[in-house]
Q: What sequence folds into this?
């Protein structure tokens, strides 16, 4: 069944050129079987008439915070209680700033504060407004709160500029939004995810590590939870909070990660190896801090290979659906395909880490999903959105 059927959707429309596309969004939501109520900002009314959205939604359009017609004169609370989810499309830079700072000076922002469910935002603005560091800060805050961000897309803009900032097309927005309700996708499935870097000790104060922030793995854990899965997250040392509801296992070395993965993998339907595990570790560990003054000491550090976690998983008899990450700086697709077959994986997520705007430590990513049948490019976006798409693909594979 269509996941949007019989849902109460509150569509927020704010004052940008893309407001004309909200008419198409209302139509698509209605077609999918949702009940739709539209809340417009004052500025939005300059771009599209409430009458159009009223006619399409079949409901009165609201914009006033003080609503004498609502039962208790508190339309914002009533609408917040009525909605199953809120979608704000287009979302202006101004509205994003208000939501990020928790302001409630009009009906839409007040509802957003009073609403306890998911709020999805489709930003739309001039490329310079999108690039502005304050907008960037606001987006980060929103992603870390109860908001999902769809897009924006890139291309020619109404003002003639070219760049990121265009609102995604209504069908793209609706397909991401409908995922919110497909919580059964991974229901009763156990997902094991490894994330973050490892630390390979040299002496009591030094270790070899890498730049992995764990953001991708943690986003995958969040997306799996949202899809209804039971999630175990085996994580190297990172500076981010694990999503509430995951079973978090903290490790430091590659050896500990190997042990933890092999222990939990037996009960898992899927193993996603997104951790950046050290291939090598120092051959020996100096119990005492290596001193600078010790001139006779050979300061080269002999290394030995760590056990390959994915290879061990691939050799299991009843192995789960195995997903690897190929973080490459060159020949991305070729190297990813090699890894896919060598490690007997079901899917590999190819990740170009030569581009510093994506990949390691960045909030955004752009990946290609590769198996023997497909090469599916997932365009650049917040790691949370990319993670949702990866989880959606994996769940489709499990059910097909
Ligand atoms: C013609 C015109 C087009 C605009 N387009 C956008 C836009 O696409 N995105 C945006 O963030 N602001 C845009 N603005 C600025 C917003 O309308 C303005 O920041 C307003 O205060 C937004 O209010 P709201 O967020 O309450 O709807 C535009 C303004 C004008 C006059």
A:
């Amino acid at each position: 069944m269509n996941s949007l059927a019989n849902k109460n959707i509150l569509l927020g429309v704010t004052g940008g050129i893309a407001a004309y596309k909200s008419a198409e969004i209302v139509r698509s939501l209605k077609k999918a079987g949702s009940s739709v109520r539209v809340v417009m900002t004052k500025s939005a009314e300059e771009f599209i008439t409430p009458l159009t959205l009223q006619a399409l939604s079949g409901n009165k359009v609201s914009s006033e915070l003080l609503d004498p017609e609502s039962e208790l004169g508190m339309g914002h609370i009533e609408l917040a209680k009525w909605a199953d989810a809120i979608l704000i499309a287009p979302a202006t830079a101004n509205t994003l700033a208000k939501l990020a700072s928790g302001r409630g000076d009009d009906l839409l922002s007040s509802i957003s504060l009073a609403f306890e469910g998911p709020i999805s935002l489709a930003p739309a603005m001039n490329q310079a407004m999108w690039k502005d560091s304050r907008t960037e800060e606001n987006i980060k805050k929103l992603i870390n709160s109860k908001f999902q961000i769809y897009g924006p897309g890139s291309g020619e803009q109404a003002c003639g500029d070219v760049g990121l900032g265009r609102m995604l097309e209504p069908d793209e927005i609706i397909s991401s939004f409908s995922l919110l309700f497909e919580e059964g996708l991974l229901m009763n499935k156990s997902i094991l995810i490894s994330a973050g870097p490892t630390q390979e000790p040299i002496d009591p104060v030094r270790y070899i590590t890498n730049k992995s922030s764990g953001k991708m793995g943690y986003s995958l854990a969040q997306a799996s939870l949202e899809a209804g899965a039971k999630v175990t997250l085996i994580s190297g040392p990172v500076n981010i909070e694990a999503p509430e509801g995951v079973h978090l296992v903290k490790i430091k070395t590659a050896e500990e990660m190997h042990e933890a993965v092999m222990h939990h993998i037996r009960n898992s339907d899927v193993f996603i190896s997104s951790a950046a595990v050290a291939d090598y570790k120092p051959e020996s560990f100096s119990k005492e801090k290596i001193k600078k003054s010790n001139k006779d000491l050979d300061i080269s550090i002999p290394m030995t290979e760590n056990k390959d976690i994915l290879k061990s998983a691939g050799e299991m008899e009843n192995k789960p659906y195995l997903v690897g990450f190929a973080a490459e700086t060159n020949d991305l697709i070729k190297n990813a395909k090699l890894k896919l077959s060598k490690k007997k994986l079901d899917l590999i997520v190819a990740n170009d880490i030569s581009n510093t705007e994506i990949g390691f430590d960045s909030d955004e990513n752009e990946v290609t999903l590769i198996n023997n049948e497909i090469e599916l490019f997932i365009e650049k976006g917040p790691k949370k959105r990319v993670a949702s798409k990866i989880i959606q693909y994996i769940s489709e594979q499990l059910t097909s």
